Amino acid sequence: MSLLNKLNADADTSETSWSKTYTETKEVAFFVSNMDDRITQDVRHFLQSYSGIPRHDIVEHVYRIREKAWAIRAYPCTGFALFLQPMLPLNPAYPFILERVRNEGANFIDVGCFVGQDLRRLVFDGCPPSSLFGCDIVNHWDVGFEFYRDKDRPFGKNVKYIEDDMLHPKTKNQSNEETLDGDVDMKLMDWKGQMDIINAALVLHHWNWDDQVAVCKNLVRLSRGPESMIVGCQIGSTGKNVMEPHCEENPYGTFQTYWHNPETWKSMWAVIAEETGTKWEAKAELKTFDQIGWRASDWWYIGACSRVLQFVVKRLE
Ligand SMILES: C[S@@+](CC[C@H](N)C(=O)[O-])C[C@H]1O[C@@H](n2cnc3c(N)ncnc32)[C@H](O)[C@@H]1O
């Protein structure tokens, strides 16, 4: 067994280890200290109109919140301020998702929801907060309340959020974590079979093939049945699929992360369908960073073949 394989076999792969260790420093390739130009007109408009942040306070507010998020976990989506631009509206299925959640009572869950930017976008676009659910392994949720100032508004009162691990999800009965009022916390698998739309944005790429299969099988368990959808995006590649460290600052090599193209994505879903006795139509597209509005120059450290894979997976049976 190679050293890398041994490290992978020994590692707890529920969460990337680098996202914990790099919180101590900003000297990493995926942190830009000046993000003024990423606080776009759209971002300002949202923070003014949804959150009620006065115009002159917006820049300071965004910098302060990013500090807090970085102190929890060090991710490129924080360091490059990607969380300012929700990914969900860029998904080709977004109009259909809005239709189903806004007008047909569909339940929507965001797994790896971070500060809840995609969920806020849905509410801003008219979806009822009571149809929305979020899950993350670690609490960025409270920073989200501070960012969007909506803890005591319909979002904070009605969106259901839990902390759990999507690789090894539990039910309430398997959990011994107590809430402040002595009740036992809900866990991800308490929502088994209840979700119509599942969003997994910028998270599956943390894992190798086997763990991505395991996570997606858990997402299948959450899905209600035929017509459920799994949507999202992740880093993909037009070149080699198994990323190994090719420069010191590249964090993604640790678990031999698997970066898909549309064909491997389809193959992975054939395996998931077979192993869960379900049937899915899996579509994906590779987009350049420019195409989705990110700065291509940020991503030098993960190589010229890297792209964003946008996906829509529909349950047929
Ligand atoms: C890179 S961030 C992406 C966040 C957000 N979805 C977005 O589009 O910006 C990955 C998120 O997944 C969460 N996460 C990582 N491993 C997880 C796991 N095993 N279970 C649940 N959430 C996890 C992280 O805490 C983080 O909030």
UniProtKB/TrEMBL annotation:
UniProt-listed InterPro entries: Meroterpenoid_MTases, SAM-dependent_MTases_sf
**Gene3D superfamilies documented for this protein:** Vaccinia Virus protein VP39
Q: This chain belongs to which protein, by name?
A: Methyltransferase domain-containing protein
Q: Which organism is it from?
A: Viridothelium virens
User: Which lineage?
Assistant: Eukaryota, Fungi, Dikarya, Ascomycota, Pezizomycotina
